[in-house]
UniProtKB/TrEMBL annotation:
Native organism: Tetrabaena socialis
Residues spanning the signal sequence: 1-25
Record's keyword terms, sorted: Signal
Record protein name field: DUF2252 domain-containing protein
Pfam short name (any one): DUF2252
Length: 477
């Protein structure tokens, strides 16, 4: 995979602040760097306790405790489950603002993944049935400053490196490689020497990623996925019972009726691919509640729906992933103007997640759309048979560098695809990033690395406080 991805720079946090730093005056903007200050002690413990209890109150004590146990594995799993804390911290310290970053611009606002970390990329098949590795999970997506994604992934690199006992010097090198590839890709797209339509495939990826893609394509099949969750009864697929597969459970009569009634509007009005309006294709075979999925989204209502697919043969049935969507984690920390921008750009929060997927991914899933039932809006996508996540256990300086390079390349690609002037995005995010960083790329990379190491330490501190709170039964109250 080559050089792509360098662009970087960024700023302009979803309009958290208003001024745009001029392209000129780069030397003076170098002086604006404000490092993140780590908070600790009793006050921080109280803040973490209050935050986690408030954010997770809606899912109930049982699911909250399950989520806390998943977050309790490592500092990185804690990071995955506490996205709202990241946005709260950046807001409190004005980290992404005209005073907090020397690369701030109020117009550097592409679509963002919104919860970008090392496990929110993975393998899946695109709309031409090619297995690729790219960003996934767009529940938290919004239009905002590109630094949110850059900083969050950079901090996750620090956490992955520290989990594997790497030195901070080596970890810093990996973060710099991530930022470097992000900037190079952006520069190439801006200059017209690189396309933003490229994707990571078995032939273009390297290191652990090409192996992940190759193994997914070779060992995963649609039938294997279908057989994991369902059985065939009288030539019709039926979901397993919870006793047979603890990740699914039966829907009740109210849920079944609500989803059935919502299906036609979904595939007739919100699907925009060639599958739009195909009644036979979307004929429901069975449905179930999806359990135990995700970390940050654990406890969010979610359903699997088996549909007929292209033929009456049960081997090519499809599973739709139907997931309740709410406001993105950043939402409480936005200005009223920025909140209005999030609200007004889309019909609802499920529509927001779907629009983000289409904007950020080349060859997005043909099943994308949304449903409305039981008072909520649910995004709909196909569950890919080739869905696999990367194992970062045992990474070294060499292997984490390879991963970081490709993460930067893929993020720049996604950001560059997602502009065009709609929903508050600029006409050309690549031109803005290039203008912000041209001639000062090393300063940009240093700032990203400085933030990542500092915030990685914040997460490690918070994880220690979290474990103490959990042991003292002060969470999920």
């Amino acid at each position: 995979m080559v050089s792509s991805s360098h662009f970087a720079a960024l700023a302009a946090a979803l309009m958290l602040l208003s001024a745009c730093a001029p392209a000129a005056g780069l030397s003076s903007r170098r002086m604006l760097i404000a490092l993140y200050a780590v908070n600790s002690g009793t006050a921080r413990s109280t803040a973490v306790q209050s935050h986690l209890n408030t954010v997770n109150k809606a899912i109930g004590a049982t699911l909250c405790r399950q989520k806390m146990l998943q977050m309790n594995v490592s500092a990185f799993t804690f990071y995955r489950g506490s996205n709202e804390l990241y946005y709260q911290d950046l807001k409190n310290q004005s980290t992404i603002s005209a005073t907090g970053s020397s690369f701030y611009s109020a117009t550097a606002t592409p679509w963002l993944q919104g919860d970008f970390h090392a496990q929110n990329m993975g393998t899946f098949d695109n709309d031409v049935n090619t297995v690729i590795y790219d960003l996934n999970d767009f529940d938290e997506s919004f239009v905002g400053n590109f630094l949110y994604d850059v900083y969050r992934l950079a901090a996750s690199i620090v956490l992955v490196g520290r989990e594997n006992s790497m030195t901070d010097t080596d970890i810093r090198s990996c973060v710099v490689s991530f930022a470097n590839f992000y900037l190079d890709k952006m520069k190439g797209i801006y200059q017209g020497t690189i396309s933003d339509s490229a994707v990571l495939t078995a032939t273009s990826a390297y290191g652990r990623i090409d192996d992940l893609i190759i193994n997914a394509a070779a060992s995963d099949t649609r039938k294997k996925m279908l057989d994991k969750y369902s059985t065939v009864v009288n030539s019709k697929r039926t979901f397993m019972t919870n006793a047979q597969n603890s990740d699914v459970d039966a829907v009740n009569a109210t849920e079944r009726t609500a989803i059935t009634n919502a299906m036609t509007a979904y595939f007739t009005n919100t699907v925009t691919s060639s599958l739009k309006g195909n009644t036979a294709y979307f004929a429901i075979q069975d449905m179930a509640r999806r359990l135990n999925a995700g970390t940050g989204s654990l406890g969010k209502p979610r359903y699997y729906v088996i549909i007929q697919g292209a033929t009456s043969d049960s081997s090519d049935d499809r599973i739709l992933d139907v997931k309740l969507q709410g406001k993105p984690s950043v939402y409480p920390y936005l200005t009223s103007t920025a909140k209005a921008a999030v609200d007004n750009a889309v019909a609802n929060d499920a529509d927001r997640a779907v629009k983000a997927y289409k904007a950020l991914i080349k060859g997005a899933d043909n099943h994308l759309g949304y449903m409305s039932f039981m008072g909520g809006f649910y995004s709909v996508r196909e569950r890919s048979p080739f869905k696999e996540a990367l194992d970062t256990t045992g990474v070294t300086l060499s292997s984490l560098t390879n991963l970081a390079e490709q993460w930067g390349w893929a993020l720049a690609n996604a950001h560059a695809r997602s502009d065009g002037g709609l929903y508050g995005t600029p006409a050309s995010i690549e031109s803005i990033v290039y203008s912000l960083t041209s001639g000062v790329q090393d300063t940009f990379k240093a700032q990203v690395a400085d933030f990542a190491l500092a915030y990685g330490s914040q997460v490690s501190t918070d994880f220690s406080l979290f474990r103490t709170l959990l042991a003292a039964n002060k969470l999920c109250l």
